[in-house]
Design a protein that fits this description.
metal-binding; oxidoreductase activity; Cytochrome Bc1 Complex, Chain D, domain 2; Cyt_C_IC; 3 domains; repeat; two-stranded antiparallel ribbon; about 325 residues; electron transfer activity
Length: about 325
């Protein structure tokens, strides 16, 4: 706030306080010349007359105490423009204090699970319950409350993991995040094989996922294979199986993160994609990240958790 606006606020507050005090003083007593009730000629229902009768003294004094309290409040807490207040109170300090108290309480709750392996936590019903709660508060925004994902956000309930689905890899993803970049190959491909080059690659990629091996005489797929071998093989591999080390997806399964329509594949190949999974380690800490990882791992390994939780209410 600039100095001019600060003084504007201070003067405005001061005028309001002084105005309230003056109005209270002015109306708190009868003054010479005020008419008596019988002189006003304003009578209703036989005995109700117009008359200026001040409030009781104790009531007036309560109003004065309210004004004094307001002045003291504005001096102790920030409220007068840029004046920080004698108490040096800030909402940031209060939030930090409350967060520290809450985190201390949470640490007690999470202490029994500190450093435990993900697959061990996944067999503990209470750990899974905590992990599900943390997931709902932090991860459900992107992956959905059931972990089914959406376009651009992975489904966590299947067996397909672009960065690897082992317990340690899932924990690594949660703690440190992931950044996947699919380059925009549109202009490069068109320079190599003309305006239909992207469609050629799409035709070949579709054959990679065909259990029958596709149509060997498909001209577009044949042209696409040559382009694929020249550009895409570095990340997705000769057989299109992908590379979890760099997040390159397997092109032979039926899962497409951004959709498998021709329009979606054209967008992916032609203009590229940039997917970011935030690093939750600084936010959740190690133990809570482990609990989330255990819950996420359990979504795609129900048999491992159901057997250990059998009979649990």
């Amino acid at each position: 706030m600039s100095a001019g606006w600060s003084w504007y606020v201070i003067v405005l507050i001061a005028l309001n306080i002084v105005g309230c005090a003056w109005l209270l003083w002015w109306t708190s007593r009868r003054r010479p010349g005020d008419p008596r009730p019988e002189d006003t000629s304003h009578v209703w229902d036989g005995n109700l007359t117009e008359y200026n009768k001040p409030l009781p003294k104790w009531w007036i004094n309560l109003f004065y105490l309210t004004i004094l309290f307001g002045i003291g409040y504005l001096l102790w807490y920030p409220g007068l423009g840029n004046f920080a207040g004698l108490g040096k109170w800030t909402s940031q300090k209060e939030q930090a204090r409350d967060a520290a108290l809450a985190n201390a309480q949470l640490e007690k709750t999470f202490a029994p699970y500190k450093g435990q392996p993900i697959d061990v936590l996944a067999r503990d019903p209470q750990a899974l319950k905590l992990g599900k709660s943390i997931f709902g508060n932090n991860c459900a925004t992107c992956h959905g409350s059931a972990g089914k994902g959406a376009v651009g956000y992975p489904n966590l309930t299947d067996a397909i993991w672009h960065w690897g689905g082992s317990p340690e890899q899932i924990l690594e993803t949660i703690l440190h995040g992931r950044e996947a970049v699919m380059p925009a190959w549109g202009s490069v491909l068109q320079g190599m094989a003309g305006p239909d080059a992207v469609d050629y690659v799409i035709a070949y990629v579709r054959q990679l996922g065909d259990p029958q091996g596709g149509n060997p005489s498909d001209y577009a797929a044949a042209r696409g294979k040559a382009l694929y071998d020249g550009l895409c093989v570095a990340c997705h591999g000769p057989a299109g199986k992908g590379n979890p080390a760099i997040g390159a997806p397997d092109l032979t399964d039926s899962y497409w993160l951004y959709g498998d329509s021709r329009e979606a594949l054209r967008e992916t190949i032609g203009n590229g994609r940039h997917g970011v999974m935030p690093a939750w380690g600084p936010v959740l800490g190690d133990t809570r990240s482990r609990l989330v990882a255990a819950y996420v791992w359990s979504l795609s390994h129900p048999a491992a958790t159901d057997a250990s939780n059998k009979g649990t209410p």
